[in-house]
Structure formats: structure tokens, C-alpha cells
Amino acid sequence: MIRPALVIAGKDLRLVLAGGVGLAQPVLLGLLLVFVFSLARPAGELVPPQAAAGVFWLASLFAMVLIYNTLYSLEEAHGARTGLLLAPLAPQAVWLGKGLAGAGLLVVSQVVFLPAAMIFLGQDFHGGVGLALLTLLAGDLGVCVLGSLLGALAQGQAARESLLTVVLFPLLVPLLLAGVRLGGLYFEGALEWEAAASWLGLAAAFDAVFAAAALILFPFVYTGED
Amino acid sequence: MNADNTGAGWVGPLAAAAGLALAGAQWFIFGYAPVEATMGVVQKIFYPHLGLAWWGMFSFFTVFAAGALYLWKREARFDRLAGAAAEVGVLFSALALVCGSLWARPIWNVWWTWDPRLTTALIMCFIYAAYLVLRASGLGRERRALVCAVVGVAAFLDVPLVFISARMWRSIHPAVFKRQGGGLEPEMLLALFVTLFAFGLLWLCLVALRARQLAAAERASALAAGRMGL
Q: Which residues have CB under 8 Å from A122's CB, separation 6+?
């Protein structure tokens, strides 16, 4: 399952990045979000660290919706989805492959969003990089697990981005709370193991529960029907 | 399809029983249970509130169970049951939030507070409202049933995570409001159980009726398609 998944991820990344347009839309949307939120800051006042972390994660979530939408629409033309379904590989390999490709694209977008959040929302760079990376990993893992599972749900639908947003965002609330709290601690410079452990545990539990669910449920979502 | 037709027999009497039970519950609430000493007559909201909240949560469990059964058996009646339960669940939870809010205004002095239970109920409302949006989004029948079953299962897996995260979120803040302790008077407890039972009957009745309605709508559109030779 791993090898086919890597092949699918590589194919998707090449297709999305070939024109360079693929990633422009999610990155631009996220940047716009950060910028628009920065307008809400009264002149001369600081944005609370937790609010800045919230804006960062919201930008990431909107980018994620666009990314998975793009990834799953790659197969919509010329009946390519049927070809992928007929290929001798476990359907879960498609989930894993798309998940990996999306994770790569999401990380690239976040590389843009994080400095943007710091610059526009006036946050400082602090130590504790290891825990910050762990937070990003735990958050992105859950976001991609669920995004890859449900990204296929609106295939062949008009207005699927909005549908995906409405379905995904409330499901992601626990992960979003963990990300906002941990990110807030990081921007405050107070991200330490004792404070972070329970939230990281929650995020890991979220990742594990939905990864297990996705392995079982994905074959039902990704089908040849329209 | 036969199961839907034979269901016609028991829904009528059930509806009558639910009506009687609700009327009886009103008497238990206002005539039998004593007026609470500190909260006064406002506390009466609590009985229907708990009935709505419990059966709302039970609906969401039904969506999960029916979704899992649909994925396993692929029978359309489970899909209809999930759809009906989700609609009633969103209605009940929203009403529970509204009447809880009406109760909280005089008692807690705020309309809303980030209590784990309130937060969980609100987020569940959002999730299942999104589920209903998905149902209405014009996917093909088979495809919609599959996708909705998957979302219904995933949504219920989220419930404990949402509750835990909401509790952790709040635990950092000081506990502004202590929950009212459980020690209910026996008369209040009896009134509570009667109300819960009455709302249970109402819930069953609404879900059964709605599932039958959905089955009838499917038959009607199948007939119309047949007439037009599609």
C-alpha cells in the first residue's frame, strides 16, 4: 500500500505543481485571510497571541479545503477516476497518496502563512522549535487525514468547496482548539512540555481515531459512481 | 418496502400515545413537581430541556448506527432512518439550546457560556446541520446514501473528542459557574422521567413518520420516472 501511495502522491504533486497555478490559489486565500484579519487590529495595539494562532489555523484550513478539492478533481476529467479504481491497488492507497500529496502542499502553504501571521499580526519568533514542529505535525496530520477522506465526497458536484468547508470545519473543531491553544502558547513564548502535553495528546488521539476510521470508510466514499 | 407499509399501523396509535404522554408530562411538571426554592418557576424549563437534549443526542447515535448498518447491508431503509433521525436530532438539539439559553439568562445571568456540554451540543448541531446540507445537495441516490453514511459515522466519532477538547479549553479559565448539584426531589425526578418518556414517544413518532415520508417520496419519484419512460 505504501509504494502505490507514494506513486500516486508523486503523480499528484507533479500535476499540481506543473503549472504553478495549483498552489497559488490556496496560498493567496490564506494570505488574504491573514491580511484581512490584521485590519481588525486597532492601530498601536497587539493582536492576542491566541487570536493570531487562530488566524493561522483558519488560513491553513481554508487552504486545505482548496488543496484537497484540487487533488480530487485531477481524476474527474476523461474518466481517470475509473482508471485509478481499476488499478490493482488497495483503495486506501489512494487515500494515503492524496493525503501525503496534500500534506506536502499544506506544509508549503504554512511556510508562507507562519511568517505572514508573525509580520501582519505582530507576533514574535520564540524558542521551543521542536514542540512547535510537533504541534504542526499533529495538526496537519489530522487535517490531512480527514481532508483526504472527505475530499472525495463531493466529486462531480458543483459548489463542492463550500460543501466540503461546511462538512469539514465543525468536524475539525477539536483539532482546531488544540492548534489554537498550542499556537497561542508558542507566540507567547510559553510553549513547554507540561502545558502542551495534554493538547498534543488530544491532537494525536484525533489523528489516530480518524486515520483508523478513514482506512475503513474510504473505499465507500471513493467509488465509480457520480 | 413491505416494512414501510406495515409501519402504517402503529404510527397512528403511537402519535396518540405521545400526545397523551406529553399532556400528562405537563401536569407532572406544573401540577405535581414542587416549585424549586431558589430558581422558582424558571426551573420548569429544565424538564423539556433535558428531554430534548437527551433524545437529540440519541438521534445522533441513531444516525451513526443507521449509517454503519447501511454501509454493511446496503438497504435503503437504513439511509432513510439516518436522514429522519438527523432532521429530528438537529431540531431537538437546537430547541434544547434555545430553551437552555432561556433558562440560563435569569439563572446564570448570561445567554451563553462556554460550558463543555453547551459547546458540544452546539458543535453537534453544526455537524449534523452540515450533514443535512450534504443530504440536500443533489447527489445521486446511491452515492448520497453512501457519502452520508460515512459522514454520519465520522461525525459520531467526533463527539467524545469535541467534549474532551471543550472541557480542556475551559479548564484553563476559572469556573465562573458551578453546575447545579444533582440532588433532585423525588417528585421532580418522577416528573423528569415522565417527561423523558413522553419526549421519547414523540421522538419515535417523528422519526417513524419522517422515514415513511421519505420512503413515499422515493416511491413517488420512481413512479413519475416510470411514467415518463426514463
A: A41, A46, A47, A52
Q: How far apart are CA A146 and CA A99, in angstroms?
A: 9
Contact A94, A218 (CB under 8 A): yes
Report if residue B203 sits inside a domain: yes
Check the CA dihedral B91-B94-B97-B103 and report its sign.
negative
- Has residue B180 been placed in a domain? no
> What percent of chain A has pLDDT above 90?
49
Mean pLDDT over the full length of chain A: 88
Which residues are B36's β-sheet partners? B40
What cell numbers appear for A131 in the block?
Answer: 514542540
Nearest to B150 among A159, A198, A221 (CB): A221
B10 located within any domain: no
- Rounded Cα distance between A77 and A72, Å, is 11
A226 occurs within a structural domain: no
The C-alpha atoms of residue B230 and residue B226 are separated, in whole angstroms, by 6
Q: Does A182 touch chain B (CB under 8 A)?
A: no
Give the domain extent around A101: 2-221
Instruction: Determine the structural domain holding residue B93 and report its residue range.
Output: 43-173+185-227
- Which residues of chain B are within 8 Å of residue A143 when distances are taken between CB atoms? none
pTM: 0.87
State how far the Cα of B149 lies from the Cα of B80, in Å rounded to an integer: 11
Q: Is the ipTM of this complex over 0.95?
A: no
Cβ contact A157–B138 (<8 Å): yes
Is B66 a domain residue?
yes
Phi–psi pair at B40, nearest 5 degrees: 75, -150
Residues of chain B found within 8 Å of residue A183, distances taken between Cβ atoms: none
Q: Which three cell numbers stand for residue B10?
A: 402503529
pLDDT of amino acid B183: 63
Is residue A135 situated within a structural domain?
Answer: yes
Tally the domains of chain A: 1
Tell me, yes or no, if A174 comes closer than 8 A to chain B by beta carbon: yes
How confident is the model over A172-201, as a mean pLDDT?
Answer: 88
Q: A114-159, pLDDT tens digit by residue?
A: 999 888 888 887 777 888 899 999 999 999 999 999 888 766 666 6
The DSSP letter of residue A79 is: G
Compute φ and ψ for B36, nearest 5 degrees. Answer: -65, 140
Q: How would you class B23 by CB atoms within 10 Å of its CB: exposed for 0-12, middle for 13-18, buried for 19 or more?
A: exposed
CB contact under 8 A, A225 and B143: yes
Write the pLDDT tens digit of every residue in B156-212. Answer: 999 889 888 888 887 544 444 445 555 677 888 888 889 999 999 999 999 999 999
